[in-house]
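Troubleshooting entry. Yesterday's outputs looked truncated, so today I'm pasting the complete records for two proteins to confirm everything comes through intact. If either block looks cut off, that's the bug. Protein one:
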Amino acid sequence: MELLSARGRSVWERMKASFWYEALKKKLPILVWLPRYSVKWLQMDLIAGMTVGLTVVPQALAYAEVAGLPVQYGLYSSFIGCFIYCLLGTSKDVTLGPTAIMSLLCASYIGHDPVQAVLLTFLCGFIQLVMAIMHLGFLLDFISYPVIKGFTSSAALTIGFGQVKNILGLHDIPQQFILQFYYTFRNIYETRVGDLILGLTSIALLVVLKVMKDSLAPTDEDTAVVVKVCRMVVWFFATARNAFVVVAAALVAYACELSGTKVFTLTGKTTQGLPPFKPPQFYEDTGNESLPFSEMVKDLGGGLAVIPLMGLLESLAIAKAFASQNEYRIDSNQELLAIGVTNLLGSFFSAYPVTGSFGRTAVNSQTGVCTPAGGIVTGVIVLLSLAFLMPLFYYIPKAALAAVIICAVVPMFDYKVVKTLWKVKKLDLLPFLLTFFMCFWEIQYGIVAGIILSGFMLLYKVARPKLEVSDHGVLVIVLDSGLNFPSAEYLSDTLYRQALLVSRPRSVILDCRHVSSIDYTVVNEIQDLLQQFRLNKVSLIFSGLRIVILEVLLAADLKGLEHTESVEEALQSLSEHHIVQEHDQSLC
C-alpha cells in the first residue's frame, strides 16, 4: 500500500514538474532550442553573428546621429537586446537595436538630451512590459497598413534629407523638416568640398556593393573552388559594406589629419569604455535649476504613447514577416515581453529605445542563422568595439555615416504602395496621404491623424452596414454584418422609409444569416420597430438567425417577434398569412 502511495506521489511530482517546465518554456523560449543545440548550429550562428556585428557597429554610430545623441549611445543601445532576445525571443532571425525610424522618433522628443533619452527608454520598456503582461498587443491592430506605409515613407524622406547637411558639411541646420529643407538650400553655398566628395563616393560605393551582392548567383556543387572563394569574398565585403565604407573613410580622414589638412567634418571625441550600470535619472540638474521627474515626463509628452507602440509594431511586423518566410511561428505576446524587458534593462546601460531592425534581421536570415544565439556573437562584437575601438571613432567622417543612413532608409520609401492602394481601394489613400504629409510637420501628429481617420472610416462601416434590398412581393433586406449600436438608427430609418412611410405599408423579411453580433441598443430599436409594424398591420420577420443572436432576442422577450430558418420559409409564412387575411375579409 505504501509502495503504491509512493509511486502515486512520484507520478504526481513528475506531472507537476512537467507542467511547470512547459510553462517555463513558454516564458523562456531558449529552453526549447538549447537542448537540441548542435555544432552545425554553432558554426552558422557564429558566421551570422559576426556578419550582423560588422553591420550594426557603423549603423549604430550613424543612427545615434539621427537621434541627436553622441555616437557612443548608438553602441550603448546595440548590445543588451542581443542578449535579452536570446533568452526571451521566439524568432531565430530578429535582431533588436537602434533603427532609423526609432532614432527619428526619439529625436522629436529628447531634444539632444541623453538623460531624457535614457528615461524615455525606461518608461517605454515599462509600458511595453505592462502591455505584454496584460496581453494588450491587440491595440496595434488599430494602426492600419496605409498609416504604417504613410509614416515609414515620410520617415524615409525625413531621415534621408536630414543627412544631406552632413553630406554637404553644413552646420547649424534646424531639426524640423520644413526648416531643415529651407536652411539647407539657403546655406548651400557653404558646402565643404571634401565632405561632398567623400559623401557621394561613399554612397556610390555602397550602392555598387549592394548591386554586386544582389546579382550574385547561387553556387552549384560543380562550381570551381576558385569561383566559390571569389564569390564568398564578394559576398562578405558586400554584406559588411557599411563597416567597409566607414573604415575606409576613417583611414582617409586619419591620413589627412596626419598631413595637417582638415578636409572632412569628423565625428570627434567620444566617451571610451563600456557604459556604467546605473539606473536612469528621475531628475535632471540643468545647472540653473533641477528638473523634477514630472517635468521630464511632461517634456516627453506624446512620445510615451507613440514610441512604445511604434517600437512594438515595427518589431512584430519584422518577426512575422521572417517567420512566414522561413516557415516557423512566433509568439506575439512573447515578442512584446522581449522588447519590453530589453528597453527596461537597456535604460540601466544608457541606451535609447530600440526595436527590431529590418535590415540587420535580413542579413541575419540570409547568412543562415539557426537560433537567437547568433545575437550573443553580435553583442560581444559591440562590447569589444566599446571597450577598445572608441578612440578610433574620432576619425570617422560624418559624411560617411550620412551615406550609410541614406542607403539604409531609401528602401523604406515605398512609392509603389500608392499604385497598389489606388487599384485595391482608393479610399485607403486618404489615411496614407494624411499620415505622409502630416509627418513632415510633426511625426506624432501624422501618426495620430492617420489612426483617427482610419478609425472614422472603420466606424462609418459599422454605423452604415450594407443593406441589400430586393422585392419579392414583400421587401427582403439582407444584412451583411453585425448589428451594433452605431447602426441601430440607420437600420430603423431604412425600414421606415422603405416599408412604413409609403402609401401602402409593406411587410419586411430581414435576412440575418450574416449577422454575428447584436447589442442592447439594437434590441431596443427592434422592439420599437415591431410595435410600429403591428400598428401598420404588416409583418417584420427575421430569417436565418444564428443561435447566439436568437437567444439574445428571445431573452429580451420581444412582443410579436417572428423568426424562420430561411427566407423561403418566411415568404411562405407571409403568403399563408395573406391568404388567411383575404379569407377573413371575404367572410366579412
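Protein two, checking that the full record survives here as well:
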Amino acid sequence: MSEERVLFQNSVSYLLACIGFAVGLGNVWRFPQTCLENGGGAFLIPYFIVFVVEAIPLMMVELVIGQRYRGSPVHSYGRMNKYLWGIGVAMILASLYTALYYNTILAYGYLYFFNSFQFTLPWTECPAGNQDCLNSTDPAEWFFNHRVVLTSSSIEDNSGGTNGFVWHLYFAQIAAWATVFVAMITGVKSLGNVVYFTALYPYVMLTVLLIIGVQLDGAKDGLKYLFEPDFGKLKDPNVWLAAAEQIFFSAGLGYGGLIAMSSRMPVRNNAFRDTFIILIVNSFTSLYASIGIFSIKGHMAQNSLKNCRAANSTGCDFDTFMAENEAGTGLVFVAMAKAVDTIGGSGGATILSILFYLMIITLGLDSAFGFAEAFVSVFTDIKKLRRVPMYVIMAAFSLCGIAFSLLFSTTRGPYFIDIFDKYGSVYVVIIAGFFEFLAVGWFPGIHVFSRDFTIVNDFHPFAVLKLFCKYISPAALLAAIVGKFVKDALDDNFLTYNDGETYPWWAMTLCLFLFFSAIIPIPLAAVVSFVFNLRFGDLDYNEKEITKSIEPKEYSTVEQMLCCIREEFDFPENIQLRYVTPEPLAPPPHYASDSTIHTNDTKF
C-alpha cells in the first residue's frame, strides 16, 4: 500500500472545487453564443437530451473512477486496466492545451478589472485627440480591439503592437498564472480554502445582475431574442454536436480535472449524489447568467433603438442592435462593458465594473485550477516525484505556462486561441469521452464498473445506468462525432478561419499536431502496455477492508444478456468471495486484476 493521499478537508470544499471547475467562462459567454447559433430556445431540447444521455453517465464514470483508483487520469485508468491509460493521456493533454490559452482570456478580465479603478471608465469615451477612435462607431469596441487584444488582419500578419507583441496582455497573463500558483501552492489544501470565495462570489454578482436586469425596459425583448425557438435547426446534426460540445466544455467532462479532484476524496463518498449536484448547478448557472445578461442587453438595444429613431436614421431594428457583440468575448468585454456604465450611472459604474470583472476573474480561475490539477496530478502521482514539494511542481508548471503565453500575447494571439480551443480541446475531449464509455462498458466490462460503483457509493448501480454506459451513451456520442467529421470533410471551410481564409501550411500542421498528439496515445498506450507490461502503482487503501461489507447482488438473466455478464457472476457466493477474500476462487480470466505483481513489470 502506497503512502497516504492528500485529501480535501471536507465534502463542501470538494464540491465547491468541482462546481467551480465546471462553472466557468463558458457558462457566461459560450452558452449564449451556442444557443443563438443553434436555434435559440429550441437548442434547449438537444441540450437537455445530451445532459441526460451523455453528461450524467460520463460524470458519474469520472467521479467513480477517480475515487476508486486514487490517482491522476493516467494512473486511474492505468489501474483500472493497464491498456487504458492512454485515455488519461488524452485528457491531460486536452487540459494542458486548454490551460495555455484559457489564461489569456482570463487576462482580458484582469485588464478590465484594473482599468475599472477610474471614475470615468476608459471604454466609455475616446481618448482626447484620437481620431481613429472618433471615426469608430463604438468606443467600447475600439478599446477592446485597440487597447486590449490588438488583433492583426490575419494569422500571417505580425504587424501592430511592439514588434508584434502585446506586452500589457502578457503581463496580465503573468498575473493570472501567479494567481493559479498561489492558490494551488500546497495542492488541494490551499485550493480547498480559496474556492469558498471563487466558487460562491459569482452567484452573488449574477444575482445582482439578474435583479437589475429584469426590471429594465427591453428585458423581455432581450430574453425573447435569446430563447425564441427555431425548431428547423434541430434537423442539423451539428446542433446536436454543439450541444455535446457545450456540455463537455462547461461541465469539464473529458479534461481529467474531475478525476484528479475526486481522487482526493475518501473512497466511500457518494459520487452518485455529487454528479447530480454538480451538473444541475452547472446547467442552472448557464441559464441564470444568460437571463441576467440578456435582460440587460435587451435594455441596451432598446435604448439604441430609441436613439436611432430620434435621429430619424434608417435601419433602426431591435434585432440588429441585439446582434452587436451578442456572444463570445464581445458579449463580456464590449456589450457588458457598455452596460455596466449605463445601468451603474455616475459613480456607480466604477463599482459595478469592478464587481463584474472580479466575477469574470473568479469564474476563470476556478476552471484554471481544475485544468492545472488535472495535468499536475500526473507528476505528483509518479512514485519518484512524490517527495518533491507541491510548490516546486506548481512553480515549474506555472513558469512553463508563462513562457508559452508569449504565443498568445502577440497580435496573432486570437487566431492561436481559436486553434488551441477547437483542435486541442473541444474535439479531443469528446473523443476521449467516447473512449471512456468504451472503457467502462466493454473493456474490461460493465460488471467491473458496477463493482467500482458499488465500492464508492455503497449501493449497486441501476440497470438503466449500465445500459447507458454500455450502449446508449457511446452510440449517441459516436453518431455525433461521425456526423461532425463527415460534414467537416465535405465542407470547404474546414481548416479555415475568418469566414473562409485558408490556414497557412504551418498553422494546419499545428492544428493536426494538437489533435493527433492527444488522440494517438489512446491506441499507442495499449501497445506500450502490452510490450512493457506497465503497472501504475498500488492503491492507498485496504481494498479488502472497504469491500467486505458490500452485500452481493444476484444478476437477473435479462441483465446478464444485456450487459454481457458471464454466468459465474450470477452466483452470490462467488460475488461474496470476490469481495471478502484476498484472492477470489477461480476468477474468470477476463476478470483477473491487472495490478497483479509480475517480476518483469515496468512500474510507473
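Both blocks look complete. Sanity check on protein two: Confidence is low (pLDDT under 50) at residues 567-600.
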